[in-house]
Amino acid sequence: MSYVPVVDLGRDDATLAPIIDRICTDVGFFQVVNHAVPPAVEAAAWSALAAFFDLPLEDKLALRPEHPGDPYGYLPVSGESLSKSLGDEAPGDLKESLNIGPVERPRHPLTAGEEIVYLENRWPAGHPELPAACRDYFWAMTALSARIMRLFALALRLPATHFDPLITHAPSALRAVNYPATTAPPAPGQLRAGAHTDYGLLTILRQDTVGGLQVSDSHGDWVPVPAIADAYVINIGDLMARWTNDRWRSTLHRVVNPVDGAAHAARRQSVPFFFNANYDAEIACLPSCLAAGEEPHHETVIAGPHLMGKFRRATAAT
Fold first, then answer.
1. What is the pTM of this model?
2. C-alpha angle 14-19-23 in degrees, rounded to nearest 5
3. By CB neighbour count within 10 A (0-12 exposed, 13-18 middle, 19+ buried), where does 127 fall?
């Protein structure tokens, strides 16, 4: 049996809530089936993003962020080291990515700090199918995230709508990641994606069958996350762990070459969706997650600046 459980979202919420609580406490990762994401929406985004990575490098480089630290656009191979988000020094990751922000701006006036997460997305000219497919996929992932957040609330013995006011204009992000085929061994300490935790509330990942995704278990050992047909991998992020006073695990994970240290690794693609709280949401320990006499493990943070700080550390010069 896999260390990462599979959850059937076709079951009723009352049944699922204690299951979710146990998984998030023990593992922090699970896979979901019967998630109601339309297969056509998923397939269109997957194929359009794969085609993007097949474009000439100069076309992709034209979509690099306009300014250092901007969150959206194309990052080339070695343009990011995820381990740096935890303060660890490591070579740039063996991947390239297209980062896509919210596909709709909120109706309220944006603050000076909030503008950064609503910058215009960058798209290649002559490929209208890409933004259209990503927009549909973004909304499908947003709907699935909202369902999971309601399950999270119930799992924490809160009203199902508890988190709703804090995710009304969440600046979530869609990322397409291509791990090119390799013909030479990686540099010492170099991975396809360095060990890291995710920054926000939860992540929804679609992966192919090449393999390489691993999570750190309760003993610190690395355990593979198998590819399951029609399933999404879900994991909680740092902000959800903060909300629960670390009762739930924001689990360390990474992507390695399928054969450790091998010179040759097949091309791999994944598409994570990072669901976040509103930029101005206060993230403080939930009172229901404090035991008698226990103090919060973390200071209160504002969601948006926390996310951008992590991102900028990861994309600092590698």
1. 0.93
2. 150
3. middle
